[in-house]
Write a structure and sequence with these properties.
five-stranded parallel β-sheet; elongated; 2 domains; 13 helices; about 10% strand; Rossmann fold
Length: about 260
């Protein structure tokens, strides 16, 4: 559980990689470079943007890495796993912004406090935005449209995020840019995976291609899981490098549905 002093802050770099994969490096994928430019432009324009895509393609990774470089002290994150009410959203913003005292008990007073706080420069990341209700989106628009607001909003999410935002015309028309993060092409996999982890640095390109075609399919989270299994397998078998037998053992641990 995060401490109160860290609540709403960007996670540490170690948290960027699935299962805190030891030895994993940040690699400049096309998606990351595009996200960095989109986030930079949004901050300069004080705008709202949406970065979305299927699970494991690196949305949160790209956004966190970009903001850690561009606006680490100004960024606050909120995230919900179920449909929040506007009351839930107010309280989450209160804690993420680190506002003093106790949350106001009346909505009008609460709104006044948040609008005053948002006159300062902030970058708000709404992770898993597909879980937000129409009323929550309207409330964020209300805060963002305040003439004194100095707020940048980055919506991120998986399945349904794009559709949810597109279904709200008043919000959709205010989104400055959209970015879908898809799976890496085989060409990009061969370029970035050797730099992603030392385990792959000396691996043959044909072996990396085989792994991607049969198991990882350009999904960064799948690559992290396979790498984690390989580290364990190499330690237990005493092998010094990846071979096809060990590779197939590692990705046999991924579910058939996930690997397809």
């Amino acid at each position: 559980m995060p401490t109160s002093s860290r609540r709403g802050r960007l996670p540490g770099e170690r948290e960027d990689h699935f299962m805190r994969l030891p030895g994993a490096q940040i690699v400049s994928t096309r998606a990351l470079l595009t996200a960095r430019e989109n986030v930079r432009a949004a901050i300069e324009a004080k705008a709202m943007i949406c970065i979305y895509g299927q699970a494991g393609h690196g949305k949160s990774f790209a956004v966190n890495a970009s903001l850690r470089e561009l606006a680490p002290k100004l960024t606050r994150r909120i995230q919900f796993r179920a449909r929040p009410s506007t009351r839930d959203l107010r309280h989450e913003l209160f804690h993420a912004l680190g506002l003093p005292g106790r949350p106001p008990s009346h909505a009008i007073e609460f709104d006044r406090m948040l609008r005053t706080a948002l006159q300062e420069s902030w970058v708000l990341v709404c992770d898993e935005a597909q879980w937000l209700s129409k009323l929550c989106f309207e409330y964020l628009r209300y805060l963002r449209d305040d003439t004194d607001s100095d707020l940048t909003i980055v919506f991120t999410g998986g399945n349904g995020c794009f559709e949810m935002l597109q279904s709200e015309p008043m919000l959709e028309s205010r989104v400055y840019s959209w970015q879908e993060i898809g799976r890496m092409s085989l060409e990009e996999v061969l370029d970035v995976i050797p730099a992603f982890h030392p385990l792959w640095a000396e691996a043959e390109a044909d072996l990396i291609a085989l792994c991607d075609q049969e198991a990882a399919h350009g999904n960064f989270r799948a690559w992290a899981k396979i790498t984690h299994h390989l580290i364990t397998g190499m330690r237990e078998s005493g092998r010094k490098q990846v071979d096809e037998e060990l590779l197939r053992w590692a990705y046999s641990k991924l579910s058939t549905r996930q690997a397809a």
